[in-house]
């Protein structure tokens, strides 16, 4: 029983799922909303846009993966397939591929609807080469996000439990990645400048100059006619270095939200560097997808199906 | 005899709980094999392992001569269909859509045969009704129809009549018999409704505590459960002489007991025994059913 058969069956099942069509409609609506200039729009529209954004990006991907794949992997409907000779890794890969395709289709509908609105309003075609590059990279990001969301679906025995865990994964992943991003953005050293007037008439600093020079013997002192500027450089306590930094950087590079931040932007000049970055981004997303899918396959292969 | 399935020393443990402890079994081709055992005996675990839903902790089985450790076992599984516990059906789809889905999984070139399958299981009139609105019996029959996609010649049914009403039980029984007789499908069926199983099975396997305690054919079971009169006398050899004189079939069990496989006139027997200087102590009619046979076998626990 080939992967092609399973893909055919899963895609045929997909078109009958109401949630899939609802999500496409929501993505299209979000595309329309985000193409509008919010300065001139009422608050209710902004609220609708935020809700749609939350649904399309935060709720729908985990909900769909857990419901669609959960029927087979968690609730055990895959037993019809296993009992007639389908290989477990094929079943898993087929479901992952369909879920990733659905996430990508939603993204594509969102982008294309938004662009269509801009094209109609501004009577210009807003497609740039960066956009196509970005669309190509998103294929791999969808795969990597789906691969992560499929793990609890493979491991858990109830679809409802899988839905709950998957929905929780998204904010946890987002918070973790944001925290890593901010930690990595911290400079290694912080610089502070103390300014002292020579006659002492405009004393700005609370710490006396002698004290500062005693505390920071390496401080750089710059003297002018009226002022003495002391530039102090000291290590930033928030800065993380060594192995921890390497781990954070690695995780940020390979997890989906970090990858979204690094997508080619519309304003970026199209050059060899951009292409290289896009290729590297796609390769990292593919690695994430392969890694998590391999873990999921291992879990599913060892799972006792009831 | 050709066997569709042979199981050799199969073990399965869940943590410290041993579900199967060295189970052996042989399912002959063309048989309706009834797997009998109380709850927790290991029937469903065995079926799950055979269907590839779980891996054995130790031991192996062969399906159509292909060992479970072989990579070709998936090919052998294409010749089987299974309904394990509750039927695996998509509740938001109709019966026909569920069958189409399984056809796609099997990679069958067309949907020809779906109507025939629906007719076979009596679901041809369900139309677009979704499976979530089906009765338990209808779901069970749909489960069997899905298992029959791809024309398997080995059907595994785990408790197929559980929770069904009397009419549903009769329908499923007739369906299984029809599949076995008309399509020559070998059926492995587990149940603890023994009276129902006795109307179907051609072979029996009694399982208890994760082990096969007895395997026998329906003929062997009939012989073991034959109606007889158990006669207790003071002198069994004298009884044997009398019974020989009457020309009836009997079996001496001990110095004082014998089973007689015929109807006897007690007065005539008493008179004949008195002439042999033997006293008749008691006569009891024995009619051992599958149920009592099973109870005796597992020790009534």
Output the keywords.
A: 306 residues; mainly alpha; elongated; B: 301 residues; alpha/beta; Rossmann fold; 11 helices; 14 strands; 34% helix
**Which structural class fits the helix and strand makeup of chain A?**
mainly alpha
Helical stretch count of chain A? Answer: 11
Oligomer: heterodimer
| Assigned CATH class of the largest domain in chain B | Alpha Beta
Q: Briefly note the CATH topology name of the largest domain in chain B.
A: Rossmann fold
Rounded to the nearest angstrom, the radius of gyration of chain A is 26 Å
State which percent range the strand residues of chain A make up.
5-15%
Task: Walk me through this protein's architecture.
- The complex is a heterodimer of chains A (306) and B (301).
- Chain A is built from 11 helices and 3 strands; from the N terminus they run αααααααβαββααα.
- Chain A is mainly alpha-helical and 306 residues long.
- Chain A has a 3-stranded antiparallel sheet with strand order 1-3-2, with helices on one face.
- In chain A, a hairpin with a 3-residue loop joins strand 2 (220-223) and strand 3.
- Chain A is elongated and about 90 Å long.
- The two termini of chain A are 22 Å apart.
- Chain B folds into 2 domains: 3-223, Rossmann fold; 225-298, Reverse transcriptase/Diguanylate cyclase domain (Alpha-Beta Plaits, 2-Layer Sandwich).
- Chain B is built from 11 helices and 14 strands.
- Chain B has helices at residues 43-50, 73-77, 95-106, 114-120, 136-148, 166-182, 194-197, 218-224, 236-246, 266-275, 290-298; strands spanning 3-14, 17-28, 32-36, 58-63, 66-67, 80-83, 154-158, 186-191, 203-208, 211-217, 228-233, 250-252, 257-260, 280-286.
- Chain B has a 6-stranded mixed sheet with strand order 6-7-8-3-9-10, sandwiched between helices. In chain B, strands 2-1-4-5 form a 4-stranded antiparallel sheet.
- The A-B interface holds A 1-2, 4-6, 8-9, 12-13, 16-17, 71, 76-87, 302, 304-306 and B 14, 48, 51-55, 74-78, 80-82, 84-85, 88-90, 92-93, 97, 100-102, 104-107, 146-147, 149-150, 152, 156.
